[in-house]
Amino acid sequence: MLHRGNLRRVVGVSTIAVLIAALMAFYVADYADAGPTRCQQHRLDARERAGVVTGRGERVLVIGDSWSVGLGLDDLAGSWAARLPGEVHVRGFSGSGFSAGASGCGRVSFHDRAPTALGVRPPLVVVEGGLNDYDQPARAIDRGFRELMADLAGARVVVVGPATAPLRAGAVPRVDERLAVLADLYGVPYVRTSDLDLDYLDDRLHLTDRGHREFGDAVADRLAGVTPARPALLGR
């Protein structure tokens, strides 16, 4: 038989257990309704943008980051890549870059995604990026670039470097120069965009609709002045 004091303790513990169970149920329900995580959203955006093909003519594959996807735009189809001539296919992933460590969303570097992206059988591949490699060591950028060039050995390639987004302006010169050196080493044209004065969203990293038009038109104009080349096969 329980004494009165012991009964109070049992009732108190039971009440706490019920409250904890209720809070856990609320948390689980709230988490289930919270929507996709950042990486999940990036994958959804990548899939949506990949489903949009713009233009006509020679097939062009763009492998890139959030700029190619159109992160921050109401309509992802308005990303800068749509300004390029030809039948343009985009395979981008927000936060990705040349180096494996640029993104925290798993194996989504340009090299990791290139073999699947090449399924569209493009004669021309435009690789755009570098802003997400801002904090990566040179050796990581070198390795990612080397592996990507091996992936793209059968296609004509142009590499488009990073523009000077205000949030990462201090890191752009280092990455820009590194990519230029690597492009020269592998014998592919490098298009600099670090001189462009573009229109940015409030995050000071991603482009507005106007910024995408400006960047896309500038890249298209500069691509017209270069001859894409197949990467040289160097020792891995």
CATH class of the largest domain: Alpha Beta
Query: How many structurally independent domains?
Result: 2
Query: What's the order of the H and E elements?
Result: HHEEHEHEHEHEH
The CATH architecture of the largest domain can be named as 3-Layer(aba) Sandwich
Span of the ends, CA to CA: 79 Å
- If you compute it from the alpha carbons, what radius of gyration comes out, rounded to the nearest whole angstrom? 24 Å
Shape: globular
The number of helical segments is 7
* Uncertain ranges: 6-34
**Which superfamily, in CATH terms, is the homologous superfamily of the largest domain?**
SGNH hydrolase
Q: And the CATH topology of the largest domain?
A: Rossmann fold
Strand order in space, largest sheet: 1-3-2-4-5-6
Major sheet summary line? 6 strands, mixed
Number of distinct beta strands: 6
Output the structural class: alpha/beta
Percentage beta strand:
5-15%
Can you tell me about this structure?
By secondary structure, the chain is of the alpha/beta class. The protein has two domains: 1-34; 38-223, Rossmann fold (3-Layer(aba) Sandwich), CATH 3.40.50.1110. The chain contains seven helices and six strands, in the order ααββαβαβαβαβα. The protein has a six-stranded mixed beta sheet with strand order 1-3-2-4-5-6. Helix 4 (110-117) runs parallel beside helix 5 and helix 5 (138-151) crosses helix 6. The termini are far apart. Mean pLDDT is 89; it is low at 6-34. Residues 62-213 form the SGNH hydrolase-type esterase domain. One of its GO terms (molecular function) is hydrolase activity. This is SGNH/GDSL hydrolase family protein. The chain crosses the membrane at residues 7-29. Keywords: Hydrolase, Membrane, Transmembrane, Transmembrane helix.
